Structures are given as C-alpha cells and as structure tokens.
C-alpha cells in the first residue's frame, strides 16, 4: 500500500523518532510504513491520521492488484 506518511512528516519538520514516540511505536515501524514494507494495523492507521488531522484515505492509498 502506498502512503503519504513521509511527505506529511517532513512537511511538519519532525523526525521518524519523534513520530514513533508520539504513536508509541518504534522508529523502524515508521520507516517500514514509509517505505511500503509494512502496512499498519487499522488502529495505528487511525492514530497516524488523528496525529496529522487527516482522513486515513488522505494518508494511505489502496491500490487493488489485478489478478
């Protein structure tokens, strides 16, 4: 799943470590989400959206893969 997390974080001028601390996750989790290696739980996705005052769909972009 693609996302705008890194863009939003950089616009606010915060480091991965700072965001991780606010969300009570590891910096590696933030890095993995930003790089598309990890999809957050729905609870974490809501926390991220609330932190940035955005809707989940404004941060995470679901693209259906054709079979």
Structural summary, described in words:
The protein contains 5 helices and 2 strands; from the N terminus they run E-H-H-H-H-H-E. The protein is mainly alpha-helical and 67 residues long. It has a single domain (2-61), classed as 434 Repressor (Amino-terminal Domain) (Orthogonal Bundle), CATH 1.10.260.40. It has a two-stranded antiparallel sheet.
Q: How is this structure best summarized?
A:
With 67 residues, the protein is mainly α. The chain is 57% helix and 6% strand.
What is the CA–CA distance across the termini?
16 Å
Global Rg: 12 Å
Report the CATH topology name.
Answer: 434 Repressor (Amino-terminal Domain)
Helix percent band: 55-70%
Q: Work out the count of structural domains.
A: 1
Order of helices and strands: EHHHHHE
What topology, given as strand order, has the largest sheet?
1-2
Query: Approximately what portion of the residues adopt beta-strand conformation?
Result: 5-15%
**If helices are DSSP runs of H or I spanning 4 or more residues, what is the number of helices?**
5
